[in-house]
Amino acid sequence: MYTEMEQWIAIRKRVRIQKEKKSKILEETGMHWKTLEKILTHPEPPGYRMKQARLKPVLGPYLSRIHEILKSDRDPTIPRKQKHTAQRIFERIKKEGYQVVIPR
User: Fold this and answer.
1) Contact in structure between 103 and 54 (CB atoms under 8 Å)
2) Which of 48, 89, 51, 54 is nearest to 68 (CA)?
3) How far apart are CA 11 and CA 7, in angstroms?
4) Predicted local distance difference test score (pLDDT) of residue 55
5) d(CA 17, CA 11)
6) Short-list 12, 21, 20, CA closest to 44
7) Residue 70 C-beta-side C-alpha neighbours within 13 Å
8) Among 42, 51, 82, 99, whose Cα sits 20 to 30 Å from the Cα of 4?
9) How far is CA 44 from the centre of its chain?
10) Is the entire prediction scored with pTM above 0.70?
11) Which residues, 6+ apart, have CB-to-CB distance to 8 below 8 Å?
């Protein structure tokens, strides 16, 4: 909501330099008090930060198998309805031993 630098600086000036009450700013802007505290503690808006890094699935040896499946689907003699979807490819490599990593 308050990610633009101009808004950030204006609010900081009002509290720190002009000595306006925090409650007045909260009332005018309708922001949460935690947001105002964040504005006052950080000199600039902090960017988006993930709490934990996402798990990255490792296809490894199955990548070549996926390419084989996709290559076989390019055959013009195969009807369109019989070509593999992403879900179907996933199910096939799972049957072949691919371990699914589910993040908690």
Assistant:
1) yes
2) 89
3) 6
4) 73
5) 10
6) 12
7) 9
8) 51
9) 21
10) no
11) 2, 39, 44, 45
